[in-house]
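Budget justification aside, the reviewers requested a transparent look at the raw inputs and outputs of the sequence design task funded under Objective 1. We therefore reproduce one unedited record. The lines immediately below are the structure tokens for a 83-residue chain.
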């Protein structure tokens, strides 16, 4: 089963609204560099579960509020119907 990384628009919006840099976020989740974080935020690679918990805690939100697309449930239903 292939896992697809998803661009994190909600996370980008939260980070920008709070004027936080990608470097700051990289240090928050303890990844090697800003580029590594940027790849995760842009959907090139995935966030680890532990990183999602740290980020959600930092913003005082649930993981699902940040990391699931707004139309996740309807998207899943529609995808299954076409199979």
């Amino acid at each position: 089963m292939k896992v697809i990384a998803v661009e994190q628009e909600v996370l980008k919006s939260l980070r920008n609204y709070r004027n936080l840099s990608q470097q700051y976020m990289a240090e928050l989740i303890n990844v090697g560099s800003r580029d590594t974080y940027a790849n995760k935020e842009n959907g090139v690679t995935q966030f680890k579960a532990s990183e999602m918990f740290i980020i959600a805690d930092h913003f005082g939100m649930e993981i699902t509020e940040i990391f699931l697309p707004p139309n996740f449930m309807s998207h899943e239903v529609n995808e299954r119907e076409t199979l």
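The helical segments are 9-17, 22-28, 34-41, 49-59, 63-67, 72-82. The longest helix spans residues 49-59. Computational costs for records of this kind are itemized in the attached budget.
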